[in-house]
Amino acid sequence: MQRSAGSILEVKDLTKEFGGLRAVNGCTLEVQAGSITGLIGPNGAGKSTLFNLITGFETPDRGRILFRGEDVTGLPPHRIFQRGLCRTFQIPREHRGMTVLENLMLVPPYQIGERLWNPWLRPRAVRRQEMGIRDRALAALEMVDLVAWQDRPAGELSGGQRKLLELARTLMADPAMILLDEPGAGVNPTLMRRLTAVIQRLREERGVTFLIIEHDLDLVTRLCDTVIVMSEGATLAEGPPDAIRRDPRVVEAYLGGQYVAVEG
Ligand SMILES: Nc1ncnc2c1ncn2[C@@H]1O[C@H](COP(=O)(O)OP(=O)(O)OP(=O)(O)O)[C@@H](O)[C@H]1O
């Protein structure tokens, strides 16, 4: 089901070269607000580079990125994150000894308590803010069903649980849109169902838009309303998952003949 409310993200003629190699080559696409959009394509098609450009970790050589109608091209990652365009990240090694809850409480930028004099000059404001952050962190843990793990070190989580925690971290920023890079990789089927349910719930209850890089086409078909196919740095095709799986250009470019399109 696609509940189109116009596009939330527009990428226009985006190009990024690395030493003569055009990783992203005049890429243009739109993501509809409230959609769960899959981004697929063969290895080296430029998907991860596109994510890096959208989230400010790389600067494009050419082109524009509009988020909610505003130009965010070239903004630093934290500014883009603050605007509600978030991506998941692996829990850094040094944070794995901290509890699951603490990992979430680290996230919000510009905590009053972190400014040098505030704990002395405005102790109540700092305390209030800490309580607010704790409440938000607990709400985020509840969303991903990890409340029971709140006091355990993050390093004790399984691979799939860690992905849920990574998703919970984006929730601390009140995201309008979340970019996920291969959520299915290395996650067991039970946790994958949970992750899928959380993604659908976030879309239903909070209207969060998702753009998801994923190699598992069955997962893409189950989860996504629309699929965008990238090949050689540009958009090759776009459409509903079933149509994309049957599109001869996609079979040719993406699946390289290894995949046999199934009718039905
Ligand atoms: N920082 C970089 N320096 C040099 N080359 C890069 C850099 N980042 C990406 N590339 C190259 O750009 C091309 C696109 O890579 P990218 O990782 O974006 O593709 P991808 O579609 O995400 O691939 P995969 O599905 O294998 O992750 C590749 O040829 C890659 O080697």
From TrEMBL:
Recorded GO MF terms: ATP binding
SUPFAM superfamilies listed in its UniProt record: P-loop containing nucleoside triphosphate hydrolases
Full protein name: ABC transporter ATP-binding protein
ABC transporter domain sequence ranges: 9-257
Species assigned in the record: Geochorda subterranea
A Pfam family matched in the record: BCA_ABC_TP_C
SMART domains associated with the record: AAA
Keywords (A to Z) from UniProt: ATP-binding, Nucleotide-binding, Transport
Highest rank taxon of the organism: Bacteria
Top-level taxonomy: Bacteria, Bacillati, Bacillota, Limnochordia, Limnochordales
Keyword Nucleotide-binding in record: yes
UniProt xrefs under InterPro entries: AAA+_ATPase, ABC_AA/LPS_Transport, ABC_transporter-like_ATP-bd, ABC_transporter-like_CS, BCA_ABC_TP_C, P-loop_NTPase
